[in-house]
Amino acid sequence: MRAQEITFLKLVQGDKQFQVPLYQRTYSWGREQLKRLWEDVGELVDQHLSGEPTAPHFLGSVVLAPGQIQAGGVQRWLVVDGQQRLTTLMLAFAALRDHLRSTGDERGVDRVHRQVLVNEFHEGLDHYRLLPTQADREAYTACVRSRAEAGGSDNVGAAYRFFRGAFAEGHEAGDERWTATVETVLKDLLSIVEITAEPGDNVYRIFESINNTGVGLSQSDLLRNYVFMLLPKRGERVYQELWLPMQQSLGPKNLELLVWLDLIVRGNSKAKQSEIYREQQKRLQSLAGDEGALQYEVEQLAQRGRRFLRIVEPARESSPKLRAVLERLAAWGGQTHYPLALHLLDLVDAGRTTPDDAAEALRYVESYLVRRLICQTPTTGLNRIFMEAPTNLETDRPAAEAVRRFLSGRRRRWPSDEELRAAIRGKPFYWSGRPPQRSYILRRLEESYRPSEPVDFVKAALSVEHVLPQRPAAAWLQLLDEETEENQTPQELHDLLVHTLGNLTLTGDNSKLSNHPFERKQQILESSALRMNLEIAEAKRWGKAEILDRANRLTDRAVELWPGPIGGIKPVGEESPGWTELRAALVVMPSGTWTTYGDVAELIGSLPVAVGAYLGSNPSLIGAYRVLTVEGKISPSFRWPEGGDRQPPQELLASEGIRFDAWGRAHRSQRLSAAELATLLGKDVAQPVTQDPLPEGEDSAAAERFRTQLRKNWPDAHDAVLAALDFWRRQGGYVNYGRFEETSCFPMLDAGTSHRPHLMWPVGIYPVSGTVEVVFQYLKDRSPFDDTEQRRELLNRLNKIEGIDLPEAKLELRPSFPVRVFAEHGEEICGVLDWFVHTAALDLAQRD
């Protein structure tokens, strides 16, 4: 085998084709891997634009084996390892080409297409520089060919859409050189080690050996080995007295984190956790031969390790004020604040600031994080802000003042009081951040009442409750009908209010509260120990006016708890984060889907009219034509930009797979709701508790409620549904039930071992609403259905049954079909369930 370091452009240029063999898994990079790659690209772009010397970024290796070559054909290479990187970069270039087309740069389009994506003078499959496995091939070639269906719901389509959005946002924010610089980085500054096998080598054995390696050394292991190699005389004592106690107290993950934080606090704000060893080695190599200096370095690291322990275990902090704020940040979760917190503890221990001053500084950090979450400010660049803080704080003023001034910087987006008030009134807080962070904010608001007998939140099993229910009964909608605006339905008003902070509280009685009328909820809330619940119970009704009044009161408390930036006024001319989120939502929509102005408004906390006005003035936005009226029609006011040569919107949507009826209405099953858009954006969209299976086994009382509700609401389907559930039990599954008023049902399967459960369920059945949800959203994280092809097969098998029409664009969501389909096609549904169990069992056998 031969190895050489090479740029991506040099790797792919020439009449060649990279074929991904069938034994390789399908393309599997998700949003997190794509974001990490794009952040690395962004750093190289920034360095290049600022004139800094730019060293290539090592992307990894690609192992190739020579394939067959025919006279006049292309040189074929089998991709033994590295197909995920190759596919990702090819999709990035496809997105770059299409971005250049949207800006009118036809020469750039031609350059990228010919240099990277295709073999210009070859036809058929030889035309493509990369040929993925057959499962990914159609989705990939759609992107290379710029076909209407490019950017579908699978991982290939999602990656293409990710890069289209990244280019659009970067072009908007960057200078005129930005796009060209990104092209340069992708072509010439991403370094790959090309490893080439010789003819006759056993390619599959190479693949096996690469993918069956043992556990490698961590970055901190490598650093430890290097340091003690340089300590031949003092090594044993330094290890026993300093390194080993530090390693034992922190554990392997936190030790590695400490070694990275040590670099950051020392001023290396661009250090990557994957390159800790190389950066520390570079810093320490000048001390080789001076064991005293090296011992001092280990002593400094050990001291910093003890400070770091006070961050991750706040009970170790002796100052009450500092301990309290460290506990709050630990409860908030995440590691974003670690660099600044460690720097502040360095200052405290060095006597350069006081514990109280450091506590006030960290209070500003907490406020910064909380306000950004409530206002749904994009998290892009957040880690970088805190990594740059230690070396950018002003040193001629108290630490708290310096931190507040630093975080108040214009490009650091600390929301003002005005923005906070608007977000609490209008944004869907229930979709912000992670569930523990949402609960934390509500907990802090409750604590702000300063009750004489505070609730022990550690022991109390509290969860977030919607006062106005997520699934309102008719009485709730009748109440809202009194407050609707012109051309607004009660359901639309409900959707704008239901997830806002003014409608949310904490309770241990979710199952009792359910979607009962407000009068019943009042009776339960009156007995609550929480002051905020007693306040809600005092209201005479619960509609728009009451929710907004409570939002105003909560804002007053939030402003007191979490102070704002210096100045406290939103910068003039700064775009609302809502429009950034709107553009991101349009980008993540798979081809073959549509949404409404109301859905987008609910997502970003705006109004349908405002969304329509924004899209009307920006019709060239990616995916703007996919936003339709609530009836599923093209808005009469939608116009393409002048001078373009675009298909009429309905024709374009139809070419992507949207089905229209004779009245020009798009098919309802292909519509993405606000919750589905939020899910595609990566938000932690908490589903109603009723929709998630309980962990315990079958509950006879719940089973009886389910049967009764099904018999009452859908009598024709009752016997067939129960027969299907009996069939499921005979296949080795069992049935779980929800806890709320509508007692949902979930056929469960444990496709694991006694030591390692592997729970999954194909559908959820709702006996009142009469829907059967196919839970692709859960299955995509569970083998074997984490493979898009297996989910697609499940969808295709269901769609062969009359009455079921699940859109392929929702392979990562929860599309549904009517429960009445069971009445006529119960046996066919059982056939699909049988296939599901067989597929899971086969996967278990292969995993064992």
TrEMBL record:
Q: Which residues form a coiled coil?
A: none
Every GmrSD restriction endonucleases N-terminal domain range:
10-228
Q: Which Pfam families match?
A: DNA_binding_1, GmrSD_C, GmrSD_N
Listed name of the protein: DUF262 domain-containing protein
Q: So which domain of life are we looking at?
A: Bacteria
Which InterPro entries would you find in this protein's record?
GmrSD_C (IPR011089), GmrSD_N (IPR004919), MethylDNA_cys_MeTrfase_DNA-bd (IPR014048), MethylDNA_cys_MeTrfase_DNAb (IPR036217), WH-like_DNA-bd_sf (IPR036388)
Q: What Gene3D superfamilies does the record point to?
A: Winged helix-like DNA-binding domain superfamily/Winged helix DNA-binding domain
